[in-house]
Each structure stands twice: as structure tokens, then as C-alpha cells.
Write a structure and sequence with these properties.
The protein is about 35% helix and about 15% strand. The protein is an alpha/beta fold and about 550 residues long. The strands form three sheets. It has a six-stranded parallel sheet, with helices on both faces. The protein has a six-stranded parallel sheet with strand order 9-8-7-10-11-12. Strands 14-13-15-16-18-17 form a six-stranded parallel sheet, with helices on both faces. Strand 17 (about 510-515), helix 20 and strand 18 form a beta-alpha-beta unit. Helix 1 runs parallel beside helix 6, helix 3 packs parallel to helix 4 (about 80-95) and helix 15 runs parallel beside helix 17 (about 455-465). The longest helix is centred in the first third of the chain and has 15 residues, at about 55-65. The protein is globular, with a radius of gyration of 24 Å.
């Protein structure tokens, strides 16, 4: 109403505008209707109504990861907050700066166990970088600004704010807080020179790159790799840190790693880790690099000092962001003096061999007369996708085909959770389609993966956010099935799935769907699906896969 004092709910949204937040994903709740009202007359941030708080939380994390700055997830108290907890933990593990705004009971009810009351600070305090309950309307802008600064400072991560219902309705005269510049975490000149000397004198050095990067930082990494003449490996689900066609790119360390790459890591005499965590996936259960090892030196560059030495004792530990290190180190001379012949060229050649699909004879499953050859699909898709296409995926054995055969060419084209989150693909694709309009976006999901968050196709249809979803339907939870077969052969419990017709389900959501039982028709169906997505509608390709082929690991090289 004209002339009415600004409410704290309006102050909240004004602060989001000032901070450059573009997208707020959420499920509306009565606990924050006064903040929701503030979106009525603005275009940015865009409030996106999701169908489940888990999908909203994933979408917010994916958008933040893709845009390189915090986006927001807004949920109601109690059940809404708990449904979003997956996204908070995901953002913490993947070091993604996200702002989670949680409605809360009125202040007079705090601590009384009111309807859907949740102790937000106790629940999320150990999962987030910053957690607070705003009890004074005048402190809303300041606290939002502080939460966002915390989310991006040092090692990025989630911030969670609880907003009592009555606070948001109160007048708030406090002005919007101007965004503050971030402190930079720079490597010292002495550390740069020491690393340069180690690289110059090594015979078999390599770089493992991961964590948070940007387009500019990835360009600096490419310059650094060329100057150092060193193979670059990506950590789990960070395959887009370096153009995979670049002669210095050597592959990825993940759930499906080329055995020759494992051997190369073991044979290296110097490992430089830039921004990556040396976690269980990247190190194959803490078996690579081998520790302790007297002949292999380790340099670890990471923005969090608590991560340095957590699993491996580095010979040189540097507290700095990978982006700052790459920008500075590319200017420091590190002329190689004694490289092993063929070390760099051989690493890239091995990667090309591993990632090029070889013709594979059809191996039909006893339970399915026809099945899609996923290797053949990957071979076709590589030629169908634009170089800047954004590919998202969740978790499951189907991701092994993506990890092995898809090549990424620019930062921000692989949108996937290092946390291993099932159901990530569809909400992440929704976020990508909204954050990068005009780009080709494809979501991969297994049948179990899709059934967790596939309802966000309804959100995509409503928002005119078109993308293609590829569902690998093998009728089982493939990853767990593989473990069952390995440890308890023939004793299958709980891993068989009976699913709906996903193609028809997509049609029910307002999109178009295709079911394929062979890879032969994939290219044609893909082009039709891409045309549908370009018009702002969801499209889905259901691939009837072979439950007897649960891994891309054993397939031959080209």
C-alpha cells in the first residue's frame, strides 16, 4: 500500500537485490508470506516455486555453483526446513555458497515447542558456515549481508537464516547494506617460488585440480599447465576445469578411473593439488597417492587450513584459493629441467584412448530382449551436444558412462554433485535452464534417481525452462545391485524397481517423451527432444538399459 512503511520482509528482498541474487527457489509457507509478498512487483530475484523443498535446495545449490555466487532457497519451518537439509549438507560438502532462508514460529512462541517449531541453529549449525535467528526487524539487512559474506569467504559453503513470522511483518527502517568486497586469500611469493622450483626439478609431476573455479581461473590453469608442461587431472565431478581436448588434460579421478591413470598417479614424483579435497573418491579410498611414500612429494593448495594435512601430510601446504594460486603462479618461471620423455603426451593419449567409445557387441540381458547400448549412446551424444552444453546428473552406476565418455570443454558445463546426491540431475537442470537461458541443458538420471525429484519437471514446464532429461531405466538401483552381486551373489533384496512409463509421465507434465529400446534411434529422438526443449518445454528420453551391464569399466578402449 502506498505510503506504508517498509516491512522487514521487503527489507530482506531488497538486500537480496543489492547482493545480486538472481534466483530464489522455494516452496511457499505461511511462516514467510510477508517476505513472499515482497516479490510481487519485482523481476529479480525471480522466485521459483518448486514441488518439493529437496528439489528447491538442490536447484539453489546448482544455480549458485553455476553462477559462482550465492543464490537462495526459501522454505517454511519444520518439515520444509528438514526437507531442505539435504541441500545444506550438499552445499557444505561441495563448498558451494548458498543462502537458505527458513521461516520460523513467531518470537513469542520460540522455545515453547509450537506447531512445526524447529531449533534451526542447533539443527543446521554443524552443517553450515553461518546460522542465526533474526529476532529484530532492523537487523534483517545486516544479518542477510553477514550471512552472504560468510558463505563466500574462505572455503565457500551454506549459510542458514531463521526468520520468525512476526519479524517479517514488522516495519524496518534500516537501510540496505552495500555489498562488501571479499578478502582475497593469496599465496605468498616465497610459496610460489618454492612450488615453481619443485615443478621444474620433477621428472613426473602432475596437477590434480578441483573445488571452486571460474571461467577466468580455468584460463589461468590452462596457461599454468602449458608453462609447467604438466598433466592436469580433475577431481571427482570437476572434469570441466580444463578443456578435455587440451593436450595437458589427462582424465579424472572418480568412481570410474582409467587403470593407467591410477598407475600414473602412483608413478608421479610430485603431486600438486589445486583446490581439491583429498577425499575418499578422489583418492580411491585413500589409496592414491600412496602414503606414506618417500619418493613422492605433495603440494596442497586449499582455501581452508583445516583441510591441509587432513588425510595426507603435504610437503608444502598453502592456504589460498586455487583461482588465486593459478593467477599468480602462471607468472612465475618454472622451466622444466628433466621431464621423463613422453610423460605429458602419454598422459593425454591415454585419456583419449580411455574416453573414446569402441564398438561393443550387443549383450542382451536375460530379462530384456532389447536394451540400449549406453556406450553407443555416448558416442552419438558427443557429436550432438554443443560445446557449451550444460550436463547435469545425480548419482548411480549410469554416471560411469558420462564420466568415461563425455568430454567437457568449458567451466560450468558439468553440473554434478561431488557429494553423490541421488535426484540431483533434474533440479540442477531446472536451475541451469533458468540461470543460463539459451544454452543447451541435459539432465541424466537413473530410474531410481529420477523418481526422487522428477516432479520438478512440473516446475520446468511452468517456468518455461526447457531441457532434455535422459532417464537410464535398468529396472534396478544399479550401484547397490552391483555391491549386492559382488558380496552376496544372487541374493537380491530391495534393489529391483518397477517404475512408471517415464516418457508418458513427462507428457503429463506438459512435455514430450520417447522410449528407446535400441541406440539406433537415439540421434533422431535427441534432435526432436532438443527442439521441444528449445521451445521452453520439458523433453524426456527413456533408455531401456540392460540390468546385466552395470558398469562402463570393463568395456574395451578405442
Amino acid at each position: 500500500m502506498s505510503g506504508a512503511p517498509r516491512t522487514a520482509g521487503q527489507a530482506l528482498v531488497e538486500q537480496l537485490v543489492a547482493e545480486g541474487v538472481e534466483l530464489v527457489f522455494g516452496v511457499p509457507g505461511e511462516s514467510y508470506v510477508d517476505a513472499l509478498d515482497a516479490f510481487y512487483e519485482i523481476d529479480r530475484p525471480r522466485f521459483v516455486t518448486c514441488r518439493h523443498e529437496g528439489g528447491a535446495a538442490i536447484a539453489a545449490e546448482a544455480a549458485s555453483k553455476l553462477l559462482g555466487r550465492p543464490q537462495a532457497c526459501m522454505v517454511s519451518r519444520g518439515p520444509g526446513a528438514m526437507n531442505s537439509a539435504l541441500g545444506v549438507h550438499l552445499a557444505s560438502y561441495d563448498a558451494t555458497p548458498v543462502l537458505f532462508l527458513v521461516g520460523q514460529v513467531p518470537r513469542r512462541q520460540l522455545g515453547l515447542g509450537g506447531f512445526q517449531e524447529l531449533d534451526v541453529e542447533a539443527t543446521f549449525g554443524h552443517l553450515s558456515k553461518f546460522t542465526a535467528t533474526v529476532t529484530e526487524p532492523e537487523r534483517v539487512p545486516e544479518t542477510v549481508a553477514r550471512a552472504l559474506r560468510s558463505a563466500v569467504a574462505g572455503l565457500p559453503g551454506p549459510a542458514v537464516l531463521a526468520l520468525p513470522e512476526d519479524v517479517l511483518a514488522c516495519p524496518a527502517a534500516a537501510p540496505t547494506v552495500p555489498p562488501a568486497p571479499l578478502p582475497r586469500i593469496e599465496p605468498s611469493p616465497g610459496a610460489l617460488e618454492e612450488v615453481a622450483e619443485l615443478v621444474a626439478s620433477a621428472e613426473r609431476p602432475l596437477v590434480i585440480a578441483g573445488g571452486a573455479w571460474s571461467e577466468a581461473a580455468c584460463g589461468h590453469l590452462a596457461e599454468l599447465a602449458e608453462r609447467w608442461e604438466v598433466p592436469v587431472l580433475s577431481s571427482f565431478r570437476r572434469q570441466d576445469v580444463l578443456d578435455n581436448d587440451h593436450p595437458c588434460y589427462a582424465g579424472t579421478l572418480g568412481t570410474l578411473t582409467d587403470p593407467r591413470l591410477d598407475e600414473r598417479v602412483s608413478a608421479s614424483d610430485l603431486v600438486v593439488v589445486l583446490g581439491a579435497r583429498l577425499d575418499a573418491i578422489t583418492t580411491a579410498g585413500y589409496r592414491r597417492p600412496e602414503a606414506p611414500q618417500t619418493t613422492q612429494r605433495l603440494v596442497h593448495v586449499h582455501p581452508s587450513p583445516t583441510e591441509l594435512g587432513r588425510a595426507y601430510r603435504p610437503d608444502l601446504a598453502i592456504t589460498a584459493s586455487a583461482a588465486a594460486f593459478a593467477a599468480a603462479a602462471r607468472h612465475v618461471p618454472a622451466t622444466p629441467r628433466r621431464r621423463q620423455p613422453g610423460w605429458l603426451a602419454g598422459a593425454h593419449a591415454d585419456y583419449l584412448s580411455w574416453s573414446t567409445p569402441a564398438p561393443v557387441e550387443a549383450r542382451p540381458s536375460p530379462s530384456r530382449d532389447e536394451a540400449v547400448d549406453l556406450t553407443a549412446v555416448m558416442a552419438q551424444l558427443q557429436g550432438l551436444l554443443p560445446r557449451d552444453a550444460i550436463v547435469t546428473n545425480g548419482a548411480g552406476n549410469y554416471t560411469g558412462w558420462l564420466q568415461r565418455y563425455l568430454r567437457y570443454h568449458a567451466w560450468g558445463t558439468q553440473l554434478a554433485p561431488a557429494y553423490g546426491t541421488m535426484g540431483y540431475g533434474v533440479p540442477a537442470a531446472l536451475a541451469a535452464a533458468l540461470a543460463r537461458p539459451g544454452r543447451s541443458v541435459v539432465a541424466f538420471a537413473g530410474d531410481g534417481c529420477f523418481l526422487m525429484t522428477g516432479q520438478e519437471l512440473a516446475t520446468a514446464a511452468e517456468q518455461r525452462a526447457g531441457f532434455v532429461t535422459v532417464v537410464v531405466d535398468n529396472g534396478c538401483l544399479g550401484t547397490v545391485r552391483a555391491h549386492q552381486e559382488a558380496r552376496h551373489p544372487g541374493r537380491l533384496v530391495g534393489t529391483t524397481l518397477e517404475s512408471p512409463d517415464f516418457a508418458k509421465l513427462c507428457e503429463a507434465y506438459g512435455g514430450s517423451g520417447w522410449t528407446l529400446t535400441s541406440a539406433q534411434g537415439f540421434a533422431g529422438s535427441w534432435r526432436e527432444a532438443a527442439d521441444v526443449a528449445a521451445k521452453g518445454r520439458p523433453a524426456l528420453l527413456r533408455l531401456m538399459a540392460d540390468p546385466g551391464r552395470l558398469s562402463a569399466a570393463g568395456e574395451p578402449r578405442a
